[in-house]
Give the backbone structure.
Amino acid sequence: MCYFRKILLACFLLAPLWLYGQTDSLRFSVRGVVRDATSGRVLPEVGVSVPGTSYATVTNSEGTFIIKSSSPVSKLEFSMIGYERLTQDAPASENAVMGVRLKPKNLTLDPALVLYGSPLDIMRLAMSKISENSPSGEELFDCFYRETVRKRQRFIYVSEAVTKMYKPAQRDLFSSDRVAVRKSRLLTSTRVSDTLGVKVIGGPAMPVTLDLTRSRRMILDELELGLYNLEMLPPQSLDGRTQFVIRLTPAATVEEALQNGVVYIDRETLAFSRIELSLDVTDKDKATRAMLVKRPTGLRFKPKEMSLLLNYKMEDGKSRLSYLKTVFRFDCDWKRRFLATDFTVVAEMVVTKRYDSSEVTKIPRSEAFSDRESLSDKTKEYLDPDFWKNYNIIEPTVGLEHAVNRLKVNP
């Protein structure tokens, strides 16, 4: 039932430098912070893009962003569910911090529109239109991937990668989605007490396995959809377009843990715009089987959260995955210890560039990153402060920057 990439408990190992891939020349950049225009609170996971280009990123948990371009940036676009889309002039100076305020947008639908169909009918119709709303030809993307592990509130592991993601044409039955790592780095704690670590299987290949509109898994599978109750929620807005909002809750008792979720569907195109899922951890045994691959003998594992967020962006009349985030939270303790240790594992990927059709090349199978591999198995330690100078990334939070500096000089 559950197709999340599972967690593997293991020991971290440090190794010397290794990197590969060529850099792009992104010499111009803009920094800023995005807030709610009404409350002033910072807004995470806001889509940020350079109009007229395919460069994009998202804001971090503190609402900040940095976006880079090969040419001077005059304007930026910002979009988020529930807010009005905004295009704003960029500062003249690259040293200036851009302040952005998004206005909430409350929508009400005419009753006739609400009766367009039951939530189940709308979900099924949206599923039937996935092919129509998806690009027909092969495509190539640049992506940025970050994976962090916190032991209680302290970061003990940070790995990051710039990747290429290839998606074949819909009618190509002999090719599969592939991801290749172009450049990556790893920083981990070497404290003896931190040797019980966590590896996320799948890593940079998660867009291949967890792009639900592509894989048609979990709630987008007709058989599994029948295991849920569906409820229509108040509509929302994204990029000025009205979204149907449907909540899913488990309605059956089965062997494996099900999901709680909210799905956003464009009212006009019936394309999926956003999917939020959270594993039902009420039954700890079921949740543990969903999350854990294996654990050392004597270790006790208590699942607390396993969530998935998928954002899709409509461009040129076609819907594409733009952002993915998974969160794993669990407690671990040894049978002879009294207190359990809380772990939080966060992995996120943002599409930072889409290549023109003339630039698309297939990733060779020999270079493809397997969904059974962990990024920590492939990535080596690197300490260059300008490591990502020529790449679009997700701006690190202040807490993460502090953690990276500590891991560099005082593991």
Q: What stands out?
A: Residues 8-23 have pLDDT under 50 and may be disordered. The longest helix spans residues 398-409.
